[in-house]
Amino acid sequence: MYHDEIVFRRRCFTSSAPGVVVLSAPHNPRNPGPEPEIVRVRLPKKKYQEQFARAESMLGANHISVRCSDGITRLGRIKGKIKKRLWIREGDLLIIIPWSFQDDKCDISYRYTRHQVEWLQRNGHLNL
User: Fold this and answer.
1) Exposure pattern of 17-36 as b/e (b: 16+ CB <10 Å)?
2) SS (HEC) of 102-121
3) CA distances (Å), 104 to each of 25, 52, 72, 73, 101, in order?
4) 106 neighbors 53 (Cβ within 8 angstroms)
5) pLDDT of 68-89, one tens digit each?
């Protein structure tokens, strides 16, 4: 097996986030190639009171106004773990964890990509 083949095989199978497996070709900005195929997507865990939410407006200082799947608009706080790694924009689909002591606030724990949102809609998991 040649060195180029080994490098290509390593780049083909990547995992972009915990619980998500994406099969894609190596990144080339001039030729994006085929759409990545979503095999598995992270779902909210009811055990930890996680739920879907949609980002409504950016408030600054790592705070976002989010519309949750239970119909309540909450003030979302981006956790420090994902603050620098993910860029969240208005309209993004998120997983949030409501605070137990203040119902109008929550922590944002995960952001879905466009392909993951399409997969969730196709498979009937999304109810927003």
Assistant:
1) beebebebeeeeeeeeeeeb
2) CCCEEEEEEECCHHHHHHHH
3) 42, 15, 8, 7, 9
4) yes
5) 998 999 999 998 888 888 889 9
Mean pLDDT of the chain: 79
- The torsion angles phi and psi of 63, rounded to 5 degrees, stand at -120, 145
Task: Locate the domains of the chain by residue range.
Answer: 3-40, 46-122
CA nearest 58: which of 75, 71, 70? 75
Is 0.85 topped by the overall pTM? no
| Side chain identity at residue 76, one-letter code | G
Residue 128 has what DSSP assignment? Answer: -
Q: Which of 6-10, 38-42, 49-53 has the highest mean pLDDT?
A: 49-53
Beta bridge partners of 60: 63
CATH topology of domain 46-122: OB fold (Dihydrolipoamide Acetyltransferase, E2P) (2.40.50)
| C-alpha dihedral sign at 47, 17, 81, 94 | negative
Going 53 to 58 to 64 to 65, the CA torsion angle's sign is negative
